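Aim 2 progress update. The chain analyzed this quarter is reproduced below.
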Amino acid sequence: MGMQARTAIVTGGGKRVGEAIVRALLEDGWTVVAHVHHDADSVPDGAIKVVAELAAVDCARRIFGAADGHPPVRLLVNNAARFGLDQLGSASAEQFDVHLAVNARAPMLLIDELAARKGEGDALVVNMLDAKLAAPNPDFLSYTISKYALAGLQEVAARALAGQGIRVNGIAPALMLPSGEQGEANFAAVHALTPLNRGVEVADVVSAIRYLIDSTAITGQTLVLDGGQRFMALPRDVQFLSPSGDGQFLET
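Predicted structure tokens:
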């Protein structure tokens, strides 16, 4: 994508994986707009902070507005996600709707805004998916369905926008950091539960983003970063394995 002045937008750019992505892009010379959810949220030094509620219908205009007056947006990383535990038998319409709004509708609106504003030059969209889509289980129902919706959006957008020079790809990592109410002992026990005996690290996502930036012939593809965990076809989410790592599952 060249080394000319360029701006990246990263949703959820104030913490966890998003913060690491923002820091890496700043190191690589990008101007970075880092989206956060709350006014009190911080972003890495050098990033442009923008506060927006992704469930709001004006989120894309608000976020892209923070890039006005800066180099053209050439990278959009749809990283932010809502992640709540529900299952069939305890699902709610409210949780389903808000997961879809944040995890699928907001990325759609952001991709649409990028297409409308892009102007001359190529651009890249990277959607943060989830390795569990390659080997689904019943846990985190609304979250999982919303990520399937995002994967479908990715396929449609890649086909629709290729002629405009916009590539649309995804990264689907397995467990990288403690999630939800997962304890440190459980995380330590199950993080490396993969055929490669290696847990996925945040640095792996950063490397994958850099690869997609440089690989200008790739669109409509998803890089699954899971150490082969999908081959194991676990019947529950990995965080529900017992802390001893003995293959037994915790009760929920």
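The CA atoms of residues 41 and 57 lie 21 Å apart. The longest strand covers residues 166-173. These observations will guide the mutagenesis experiments scheduled for the next reporting period.
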